[in-house]
Design brief:
The chain is mostly beta strands. 8% of the residues lie in helices and 53% in strands. A hairpin with a 2-residue loop joins strand 1 (2-7) and strand 2.
């Protein structure tokens, strides 16, 4: 079982007992967090899709630690001008572990991606466009 969930502005594919690094959360280390923006849930082939999010579905997680990511060096240079600028950046991150995925309510279900695509294509066939007649050349004599 896995789910596509939005955490701190980014979408992640998560499953139970998965450790994920996300942008820094305001919660303390060791506290539990619940994410309600669940966009898709796959339960052994049974896919549930939200429009845009699944009502009543949530992902439970626990904050393990707060840390900083690897340093990224930003180097700028303009040739023949003597301009060089070096700057670094370390992103603040939180490590979380997914404890469970719950689904509730009456979500929209699709058997498979193929069936969902066929359902959308069969609803309204595209109208045929008639070609405009070609313009005739007018012969002008002087």
């Amino acid at each position: 079982m896995y789910a596509i969930v939005e955490i701190a502005g980014q979408q992640f594919k998560v499953s139970k007992d998965l450790k994920v690094y996300v942008h820094r959360l305001a919660n303390e280390e060791g506290s539990k967090v619940s994410f309600d923006k669940v966009y898709l849930v796959d339960d052994n082939g049974s896919i549930t899709i939200g429009a845009p999010a699944i009502e009543g579905a949530s992902v439970e997680a626990k904050v393990l630690q707060h840390l900083k990511g690897d340093k990224v060096i930003v180097f700028k240079k303009k040739r023949r001008k003597g301009f060089k600028k070096r700057n670094g950046h370390r992103q603040y991150l939180s490590q979380i572990v997914i404890e469970g995925i719950t689904v509730g309510g009456a979500p929209k279900k699709a058997a498979s991606k193929k069936a969902a695509v066929e359902a959308t294509t069969e609803e309204a066939p595209a109208p045929k466009v008639k070609k405009a007649p070609k313009a005739k050349k007018e012969d002008t004599q002087e």
